[in-house]
Amino acid sequence: MPADRLTLPADPGPFSFEPARTALLLIDMQRDFVERGGFGESLGNDVGLLREVIPPLQEVLAATRAAGMTVIHTREGHCSDLTDCPPAKLNRGNPTMRIGDLGPKGRILIRGEYGHDIVDELAPLPGEVVIDKPGKGSFYATELHELLQIAGITSLIVTGVTTEVCVHTSVREANDRGYECLVLADCVGSYFPEFQEAGLAMIAAQGGIFGWVSPSAAYLEALSAVNPAAVGAATSRGRSRST
Ligand code: TIU
């Protein structure tokens, strides 16, 4: 019997959500950010820290699917002629490879390329929405808000990478559009430990200025009221992976 409303402990206080009106958002879990030879590494980053997000996020994804909730994936990237990539973004920094250059996983951050797609461990299922976004925010120049409105979604469980860039931008955009956001601390990742810590603190500060933060275990525990068997199975999969 699905619970109408679930509550879990979070920072700065309890987070309540209706599973039927809540979507899990997986932001930019693309090879270009979390695997070697992609955009993230071209910017001088070590992708190792981001990869730590994958196992807990697999558990969250499995439990969310089993609960029958909406799942939405996003991908940051551009069309092949780069007409949707402003020079201000293309020329930023001093990367070894720029957006559109050919790397070991195809052209960097270009739609349709192998590196642009989501990692196998978190591959979308048929029927799950995949939002292609040209910017850092998941709402900018996308159909996300309209889709959420049509589906009656009022709350978002936010995961993905990177914490201080695309996750933060998306949470701020979502907050301004009226969505209640719970960010799962171990399911968002940064190349910089200090930004991970500060990024999460900034969301929950000032009484939850942008949203709530909790570990994924608290979310999984709350979901067990909807589907205990599925959450148990997800948790034991996670344990067997880590041994
Ligand atoms: N560089 C960095 O930290 N992030 C991005 O460029 N995009 C996302 O966060 N997805």
Explain the overall architecture:
There is one protein chain. The chain is α/β, with parallel strands linked by helices and 243 residues long. It has a single domain, classed as Isochorismatase-like (Rossmann fold, 3-Layer(aba) Sandwich), CATH 3.40.50.850. The protein is 37% helix and 20% strand. It is built from ten helices and ten strands. The chain has helices at residues 31-34, 39-42, 48-51, 54-66, 87-90, 144-151, 163-176, 193-208, 216-223, 228-242; strands spanning 6-8, 15-17, 22-27, 70-76, 102-103, 106-107, 129-133, 155-161, 180-189, 212-214. The strands form three sheets. Strands 7-4-3-8-9-10 form a six-stranded parallel beta sheet, with helices on both faces. Strand 8, helix 7 and strand 9 form a beta-alpha-beta unit. Helix 4 (54-66) runs parallel beside helix 9 and helix 7 (163-176) packs parallel to helix 8. The radius of gyration is 17 Å and the shape is globular. Mean pLDDT is 93; it is low at 238-243.
Low-pLDDT runs of 5+ residues are: 238-243
Helix content: 25-40%
What is the domain tally? 1
**What's the shape?**
globular
Order of helices and strands: EEEHHHHEHEEEHEHEHEHH
Number of strands: 10
The computed structural class is alpha/beta
CA(first)-CA(last) distance: 34 Å
Task: Describe the strand arrangement of the main beta sheet, using strand numbers.
Answer: 7-4-3-8-9-10
CATH superfamily: Isochorismatase-like
Radius of gyration: 17 Å
Q: How would you state the average pLDDT, rounded?
A: 93
Oligomer: single chain
Q: Approximately what portion of the residues adopt beta-strand conformation?
A: 15-25%
